[in-house]
Amino acid sequence: MRIYLTTPIYYVNATPHIGHAYTTIVGDILARHHRQRGHETFFLTGTDEHGTNIPRIAREAGLDVQEFVDRNAAAFREMTQRINASNDFFIRTTDPRHEAAVQEFVQRIYDAGDIYEGLYEGLYCPRCEAFYTEAELVDGRCPVHGILPEHVEEKNWFFRLSAYQERLLELYDSNPELVLPGFRYNEARSFIQQGLDDISVSRASESWGVRVPWDPSQTVYVWVDALINYWSALAFARDGQDLRDDLWPAVRHLLAKDILKFHCVIWPALLLAAGLDVPKQLFVHGYLLFDERKMSKSEGNVIDPLELIDVYGADPVRFYVVREVQFGQDGNVSVDGVHERYERELGNDLGNLLSRTTAMIARYRDGRLAEAPRAGDGNGLGTLGDDVAALLDGFDVTGALERIWKEVRSLNALVEERKPWALAKDESRAPDLDRTLYELADGLRAVAIALSSYLPETAPRILEALQQPDDLGWEGVGPGRTKAADGIEAAEPLFPRVDSPTAAA
Ligand code: MSP
How far is C-alpha 106 from the geometric centre of its chain's CA atoms? Predict the structure, then answer.
């Protein structure tokens, strides 16, 4: 199987917050998981650097536009690295190779006869980089940013989106899982069914962008330019190779609900017009909220992912965002919440389980773990691999993590139930003690492999503490694969205590 995963490319008008990190984290969990299953995987993220808003903000900051985008793109790249994303490429839309691909793409649509010249008159929100009708405004203001839209009147090139209504409906009807979750599929489909207007795909007044190839007085509308990144990146991500033939049909896009229309309606229509395959699947997720409001720079309510990583490390931040909020829904996040889950779930449930297990092997068996296969599938470990894989095939990163955590909880329950410290006092119970220690080690090893896409730094530490090979292949999630080992010592805490942010304040 092949899988090409993408995140939206982020605007470089500001530095990243945890909402941006969120989609990249989920994309990374999925990418790492598919690699574990031996699937040919390509994971793309990057930055969206054109548009009318960016030169304006750069000027306000007193910077040259290129210098400004370079600086903020570097901040996004740093965020990507600090959260340990294993992206195969980082695309920037100011890359001349992308710009050339945008020209090639729009030229195809123009040649196919689906682009025509017209007069645009309407309202534009530069922060959304989107046009609005009067009816869509709230008290005359942009419904997302609350700012007054600009009145734009200019000659533009238009894309015949209206001509694609039937083909889009056919596409949706023949692919009931094209857009997930189901309620987003319905939202996109009913939007199409209501009828589509042609859209302006160029700007006359903005020079910071890709030139329209047949009319260099205009630049390509930033959203068209940005969407094409998913297709262009594969052409030049690897020197001398065009990965599109292999990977393009397997594309899965991740995005938040604010950009559903661009991805689920306009993008497939542009691809059809260009004679290209449409995406295999799109997953539309919700917002991380802070104090019940969408986190955004303009609201001043952002959580800086790098500050959290400085205190807790990347794994706990990755864990927190997918554990706290059901992927697909909106949900609140907070710094105190990160701390609480760090202590209770990572520190106690997982960290202590490893500390206790290794300490008992060290103390009662001199560091030797004997192979003592158990009867049957004690704790549901037998279905863990299939269950997690099925949930992740449906993009349910939260459900899959809960399924793994069920295993963690049942291993903790096993310790309480079997009381290895009591078994250790009774020589006649030696086989029971061996079996218990093996079950704990085996469960922890399987859990580590299942968790490694979520906690890529922690999982190898668990395997190492148990003296197990560092192979993360998905078959390893099955029970009874733990090898006998020597020299196991009481493990250092996986998640050492950290001062609570409120206590420190
Ligand atoms: N540049 C466009 C996307 C072009 S894709 C061809 C854009 N950029 S953005 O910087 O505004 O980032 C949008 C994406 O960041 C969202 O779709 C989502 O993936 C992520 N998020 C930004 N803030 C978020 C939250 N508060 N919560 C969840 N995701 C958030 O739109």
Answer: 28
Nearest to 289 by CA among 264, 254, 257: 257
Exposed, middle or buried, 279 (CB in 10 Å: 0-12/13-18/19+)?
buried
pLDDT digits (tens, 9 = 90+) for 59-105: 999 999 999 999 999 999 999 999 999 999 999 999 999 999 999 99
Report the alpha-carbon distance of residue 455 to residue 373 in Å, rounded.
27
Closest-CA residue to 226 (of 418, 365, 95): 95
DSSP at 262:
I
Cα–Cα dist 488/494, whole Å: 15
Label residue 121 exposed, middle or buried (CB < 10 Å: 0-12, 13-18, 19+).
Answer: exposed
| Tokens matching residue 355 | 């500390």
pLDDT at 378 over 60: no
* Ligand 1 near 224 CB (within 6 A): no
The model's pTM is: 0.95
- Between the two ends of the chain, the Cα-to-Cα distance in Å is 50
In one letter, which amino acid is 274?
A
Q: Looking at the annotation, which residues are catalytic?
A: 17, 20, 125, 128, 142, 145, 294, 297
Q: Whose CA is nearest to atom 8 of ligand 1?
A: 10
Structure tokens at 85: 């994303």
Judging by beta carbons within 10 Å of its beta carbon (0-12, 13-18, 19+), is residue 335 exposed, middle or buried?
Answer: buried
* Contact present, 317 and 357 (Cβ < 8 Å): no
Round to whole Å and give the CA distance between 93 and 168. Answer: 27
Please tell me the distance from the alpha carbon of residue 236 to that of residue 309, in angstroms, as a whole number. Answer: 32
**Beta pairing partners, 141:** 138
Residue 437 CB–ligand 1 contact under 6 Å = no
For ligand 1, mutation pick of 45, 225, 255, 267 (most atoms within 8 Å of CB): 255
* Residues 400, 109: Cα–Cα separation, whole Å: 41
25-34, 164-173, 195-204, 302-311: segment of lowest average pLDDT? 302-311
Cβ–Cβ < 8 Å for 212, 106 = yes
Give the per-residue pLDDT at 504. 45
Q: How far apart are alpha carbons 309 and 315 in whole angstroms?
A: 8
Distances (CA, A) of 262 to 129, 327, 346, 483: 11, 20, 38, 51
**Ligand 1 atom index nearest CA of 229:** 6
Amino acid at 53: N
CA neighbor of 181 nearest in space, from 260, 290, 265: 260
Mapping DSSP to helix (H, G, I), strand (E, B) and coil, where does residue 202 land?
Answer: strand
Is the separation of the CB atoms in 414 and 436 below 8 Å? yes
Q: Is residue 19 lining ligand 1, measured as CB closer than 6 Å?
A: yes
Residue whose CA lies nearest to ligand 1 atom number 28: 287
Query: Does the CB atom of residue 152 touch ligand 1 within 6 A?
Result: no
